[in-house]
Fold:
Amino acid sequence: MTIRDYDVLIAGGGNAALCAAISARRGGASVLVVEAAPRFYRGGNTRHTRNMRCAHDSATETLSGPYYEEEFFEDLLRVTGGKTDEKLARMMIAESKDMLNWIVEQGVRFQPSLGGTLSLGRTNSFFLGGGRAMLNALYRTAEQLGVEVRYDTEVVDLDIVDGRFRSATVLHRGQRQSIAAKAFVAASGGFEANIDWLKEGWGEIAENFLIRGTPYNRGTVLKMLIESGAQQIGDPTQCHAVAIDARAPKYDGGIITRLDCVVFGIVVNRDAQRFYDEGEDVWPKRYAIWGRLVAAQPDQIAYIIFDARSLELFMPSLFPPVKAMTIPDLAGKLGVDASALEKTVSDFNAAVQPGTFDHTSLDDCRTEGLFPPKTHWARRIEEAPFYAYPVRPGITFTYLGVRVNEQSRMMMADGRPAANMFAAGEIMAGNVLGQGYAAGIGMTIGSVFGRIAGREAAAEVRANLPAPATMEIA
Structure:
């Protein structure tokens, strides 16, 4: 069955897809968005987000100070270890300065800047009502503009010839339909919910990973694009992976299962041994390393240990911490060796040096003569009751994707730009994120490249419209 042709077909239903849809529609194109999820679960991982990171030159009503382009780029270099396409990254950061205004024009609202342990009040804008409210605003605007949306509609085949998209086959309620379009935007996320694909890079340990976001991001469109000649970019084992509560569901646990308390205690593995510096840097820049660190531990499990002084310094998990009046009792509740945990805590306490604790900055509270060290926020764990959170790797999204240029146009394996195919969001995040993560940058990638992809797709359609007929006058 064939349904009517569109100027632009967009695969995906999250932030990147909607920014592309709105941008393309404002560019005069007819637009269809196909979302694999049901309406209630629309939006991919955008449902679980809270904020976006954008450059800006001064404080605003919702940001406490300036965040210049160069500082943003330096932060990106720090978290990626330099593994980024500098030209694309700098372009994205420059474009991000206008996104705060543009996204508000699409109906999204921000709340006043946040203080506290997140340390993001200057760099990140928080959505009023969270990711779902942001998503609902974008859907309202898109639909008011005339964008069509079809839910429960999965792309199962792509007709691509020599870098030119011709049509997509979708599956909707058991029925296959063909959709032709003059341009195609892939904004359908990564493959983090495809455990078999994760195993190809990670091996069997991927069975112990929890997926923080949508179960619908299985990489179907990504795989078809690569098989059709799109140029691949990124490492299949690189991803946004954080330490989340081990009691979280397999899929869709979202932000409420993330744990921000690593910096306030110590982290031990199944053998009650520490394995990394918990105080390496401020949390928004380093929290996304902990998923990979836990993934490298036996059975992919670890435990964050802290005492009563730290209980109210961070945003807790949905689940209550494990609580005990002594370290041996805590070990028993966690199922780890009591004497080993007691020694680890004792050795840590003995290594803590005097300092002035300040959870808002890189303070001088550190250990000495201990490996691994704790370089900041080191306080003795000695005030009962004692607490622990069990954590596992929580995969947010993967970085393997398709290469794009500054027009968000896909690049083909032979080095040519695709004729009429564009990509935005997680499916091309590996262009910017070779590894690592900084809070809010996923939404930046989706918004900036989504807006560009939609704009360029509409321009591609206009450029290829038949010339109007002319009449010769005698």
